C-alpha cells in the first residue's frame, strides 16, 4: 500500500509536468490571450508577444465601461525579469500567466482605450500586485463612470463574512473531528495530522492527473487517506502502544513522522502549488450574500459528512464502542470491546476525514502544496482545544467558532492577521475555561 501511494505521488507531478504546452493554434489559453497574440502578430510582422498561457500562476481581471465590456485594450505585466501582455476579450476579461509568484507591475495601455473612455479618477496605473498564497490574483481597472461600486452596508458585509466563516469552520471541523477522535481513544496528540490533510489533497491531484474523472479521483483520495491511517496505526502506533511507550515520547515520534511525511511529499510532489480541476468557480448571488460555488459545495459537503459522523457515533454499535473506549479504555476492554479494533477504525476514519478536509481546503485556498497541512494544523489544534480535548462535538463547536472569528475579523483586521486573532481567542477562552467548552474538569491534570 505504501508503494502504491509513493507511486501516485511520483506519477502525479510527472504527468502534469511532461504534458507539452499545446501549439498556438490549439492553445487552451483564454480568448483574450489568443486575440492578443493574433493582433500583436499583425502589428509586428509575425512576432508573437508572450501572454504566459503556459503558466499556472495568473493575473487577471475584467474591463467594463458603463456596464458594457471593453475589448481590445492592452494590459501589460512585468517583474522578476519577466514581461508579458495581452488584450481584453469580447467579454472584457483578460489574463496573463507568470512563471513564478511574487510582485509584478501591471499597466493598462491607455492609448488602446476606445475614444471617449478613460480611467476613473484616482486609478493607479501602473500598479503593483503581489501573490499571497494563491495562484490567481485579480486586479480591476475602473473606467470613467462606467463601473459604479455598490457600497455594501456593514450588515451585508457581516453576513457574507459569517457565511464564509461557517464554510471555513465546517471545513476545519472535518480535520478537527478526526484529530479529536484519535486523541479521545488513544490520548495521542498527533502532530502528523496536518500531513494527513496534505496527503488527501495530493492524492486527489495525482488521481485527476492520471485522467480519472474528478468524482472518482476524490473518492479514491478519501479512501487513500483512510489507508494512510490504517498503515500508521498498524505499522507504528499499535507496536508503540504494546511496548508501553508513554504519550510524550509518542508525541515526539508524531513530530518526526510529520517532518518525514512533509518532505517526502515535497520530494515527489515538488514545491509548486498545483490546481485541482474546477478550482476556479463562479460567484453565486444568494439574496444579499455572494459566495463562490466551491465554497457553497464545501459547506454542504462538510455539514452532511459531520451529521453522518455524529449519527454513527450516537446510533451505531461501533460509535457507542468508540465513545466507551474514549471514556475508559480498561473498562471498555473488560466489557468485551476489542479496543485495538476500535482504535484501528478510529485511525482510518480520522485519516478519511483529514483527506476530505484537505481536498476542500485545496479548493478553499485554492491550490495543493506540500505544506498546506502545516498551515492549517494550528487552527485544527485551536479548534480541538477550544471545544474540549477528546470531545467530538466540542471539536465541531470549536471549529465553527474559529472559522467565524477568522473570517469576521477581516472586517477590522488585516487579512494576514486573521489567524493570529483565532489563536488569541482560543487563549482567552482557555484562561476562563481551561477544559474547553464541552470538556470535563476531570480530564485536566
UniProtKB/TrEMBL annotation:
It is found in: Cell membrane. Residues 17-53 are annotated as: Disordered. It holds the Pfam family BPD_transp_2. Its main location: membrane. Residues 1-17 form the signal peptide. The chain crosses the membrane at residues 129-150, 162-183, 203-231, 252-276, 296-314, 345-364, 376-405, 417-436. CDD domains: TM_PBP1_LivH_like (cd06582). It is a multi-pass membrane protein. It comes from the Bacteria. InterPro entries: ABC_transp_permease, BCAA_transport_permease. The keyword Kinase does not apply. Keywords: Amino-acid transport, Cell membrane, Membrane, Signal, Transmembrane, Transmembrane helix, Transport. Residues 17-38 have a biased composition (Low complexity). Belongs to the binding-protein-dependent transport system permease family. LivHM subfamily. This is Branched-chain amino acid ABC transporter permease. It comes from Arthrobacter koreensis.
Amino acid at each position: 500500500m505504501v508503494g502504491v501511494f509513493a507511486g501516485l505521488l511520483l506519477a502525479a507531478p510527472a504527468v502534469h509536468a511532461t504534458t507539452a504546452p499545446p501549439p498556438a493554434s490549439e492553445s487552451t489559453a483564454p480568448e483574450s490571450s489568443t486575440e492578443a497574440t493574433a493582433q500583436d502578430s499583425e502589428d509586428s510582422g509575425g512576432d508573437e508577444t508572450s501572454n504566459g498561457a503556459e503558466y499556472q500562476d495568473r493575473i487577471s481581471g475584467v474591463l467594463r465601461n458603463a456596464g458594457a465590456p471593453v475589448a481590445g485594450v492592452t494590459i501589460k505585466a512585468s517583474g522578476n525579469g519577466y514581461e508579458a501582455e495581452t488584450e481584453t476579450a469580447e467579454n472584457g476579461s483578460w489574463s496573463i500567466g507568470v512563471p513564478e509568484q511574487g510582485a509584478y507591475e501591471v499597466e493598462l495601455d491607455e492609448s488602446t482605450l476606445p475614444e471617449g473612455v478613460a480611467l476613473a479618477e484616482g486609478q493607479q496605473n501602473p500598479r503593483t500586485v503581489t501573490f499571497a498564497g494563491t495562484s490567481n490574483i485579480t486586479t480591476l481597472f475602473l473606467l470613467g463612470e462606467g463601473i459604479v461600486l455598490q457600497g455594501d452596508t456593514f450588515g451585508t458585509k457581516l453576513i457574507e463574512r459569517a457565511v464564509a466563516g461557517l464554510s471555513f469552520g465546517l471545513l476545519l471541523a472535518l480535520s478537527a473531528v478526526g484529530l479529536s477522535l484519535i486523541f479521545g481513544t488513544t490520548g495521542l496528540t498527533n502532530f502528523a495530522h496536518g500531513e494527513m490533510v496534505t496527503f488527501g489533497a495530493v492524492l486527489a491531484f495525482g488521481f485527476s492527473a492520471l485522467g480519472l474523472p474528478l468524482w472518482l479521483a476524490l473518492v479514491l483520495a478519501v479512501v487513500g487517506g483512510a489507508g494512510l491511517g490504517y498503515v500508521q496505526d498498524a505499522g507504528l502506533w499499535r507496536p508503540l502502544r504494546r511496548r508501553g511507550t508513554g504519550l510524550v515520547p509518542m508525541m515526539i515520534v508524531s513530530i518526526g513522522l510529520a517532518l518525514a511525511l512533509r518532505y517526502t511529499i515535497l520530494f515527489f510532489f515538488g514545491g509548486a502549488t498545483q490546481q485541482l480541476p474546477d478550482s476556479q468557480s463562479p460567484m453565486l448571488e444568494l439574496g444579499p450574500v455572494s459566495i463562490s460555488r466551491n465554497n457553497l459545495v464545501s459547506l454542504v459537503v462538510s455539514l452532511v459528512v459531520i451529521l453522518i459522523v455524529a449519527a454513527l457515533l450516537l446510533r451505531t454499535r461501533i460509535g457507542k464502542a468508540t465513545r466507551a473506549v474514549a471514556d475508559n479504555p480498561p473498562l471498555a476492554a473488560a466489557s468485551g470491546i476489542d479496543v485495538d479494533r476500535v482504535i484501528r477504525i478510529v485511525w482510518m476514519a480520522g485519516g478519511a476525514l483529514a483527506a476530505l478536509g484537505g481536498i476542500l481546503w485545496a479548493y478553499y485556498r485554492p491550490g495543493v502544496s506540500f505544506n498546506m497541512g502545516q498551515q492549517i494544523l494550528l487552527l485544527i489544534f485551536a479548534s480541538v482545544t477550544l471545544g474540549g480535548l477528546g470531545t467530538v462535538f466540542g471539536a465541531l463547536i470549536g471549529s465553527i467558532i474559529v472559522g467565524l472569528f477568522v473570517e469576521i475579523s477581516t472586517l477590522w483586521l488585516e487579512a494576514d492577521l486573521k489567524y493570529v486573532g483565532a489563536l488569541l481567542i482560543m487563549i482567552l477562552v482557555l484562561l476562563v475555561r481551561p477544559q474547553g467548552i464541552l470538556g470535563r474538569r476531570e480530564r485536566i491534570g
